[in-house]
Design brief:
The relative contact order is 0.22. The chain is mainly α. The radius of gyration is 17 Å and the shape is globular. Helices cover 78% and strands 0% of the residues.
Length: 263
């Protein structure tokens, strides 16, 4: 009821900012991940009385819509690898459920310094290798691919349910480094993993009553539109452009997490 009263007092400007944030997050997520950089802080700012789990759960509903639109748009234009996608998605969904459940038992601050270190390493690695992701690299053997995909889905699925920021960007880099994809192919396939992890986390959050459905449904529509537009921009603009956006997103994630920890 408290969440309903908070929503009831939101003005047109506040609602407009929230829906614009959902649209922008859909565009960003479709290109390089990192949409949570936009929606979660905006929701926390606009709804100061709502628990963090409420903002995260509402963002998951929005993100599922955006990743669905982006994944379908990519599927028409980009080659997909079912041998990677199916085991990865099957692993990501239950792992994200356990990650979301773990939030109520563990302190996310425990792993934030480790994630900050991973993001810094990602930025340095991408910066020092300007050719990374511009062309396809060497893929692992056919026997290894499904197991590697399941491992990535399990690890990043749990992280997405537990903490979340940067999951899409981590998935993009995993597809480039481990599976030899270029930035466009990595962004496309990351959407399917991310869809599964969002759904897994939501299967825990929704029954607990954390989702603010009054906002979640229109945010989902805005995020869906952003996801479709973002994927088309990525397909049209190519790998070099996606690489620049990817680096910008990772640096923004580093700044946000660093400020959260030490600011």
């Amino acid at each position: 009821m408290h969440a309903f009263l908070t929503l009831h007092h939101l003005g047109p400007l506040q609602l407009g900012l929230i829906f614009a944030a959902a649209f922008a997050a859909g565009v960003l997520d479709a290109i390089a991940g990192g949409g949570g950089l936009i929606t979660t802080p905006v929701l926390m700012l606009m709804l100061p009385g709502v628990p963090v789990t409420g903002a995260l759960a509402t963002t998951k509903v929005s993100s599922i819509a955006g990743t669905t639109g982006a994944a379908l748009a990519y599927a028409r234009r980009v080659e997909l690898r079912p041998r990677i996608l199916i085991p990865g998605m099957l692993a990501a969904l239950p792992s994200a459920w356990f990650g979301a459940r773990a939030v109520s038992h563990l302190d996310p601050a425990v792993i934030k310094p480790a994630i900050l270190g991973v993001l810094i390493a990602m930025a340095l690695y991408t910066w020092w290798r300007p050719e990374l992701g511009l062309l396809r690299g060497k893929a692992p053997g056919r026997r290894i691919e499904p197991w590697a995909a399941a491992a990535v889905g399990s690890a990043l699925g749990f992280y997405d349910g537990f903490l979340g920021p940067g999951t899409g960007s981590l998935l993009v880099l995993a597809f480039i480094v481990l599976f030899g994809r270029d930035f466009l192919g990595a962004s496309a396939q990351a959407k399917f993993f991310n869809w599964a992890s969002n759904l897994g986390a939501l299967l825990w959050f929704a029954p607990s009553g954390s989702v603010l459905w009054v906002l979640a449904v229109p945010m989902a529509a805005c995020n869906l539109l952003g996801g479709v537009i973002g994927s088309r921009l990525a397909i049209r603009s190519g790998n070099r452009w996606i690489r620049r956006i990817f680096l910008a997103v990772v640096l923004a994630l580093i700044a946000r997490l660093g400020w959260n920890l030490y600011g």
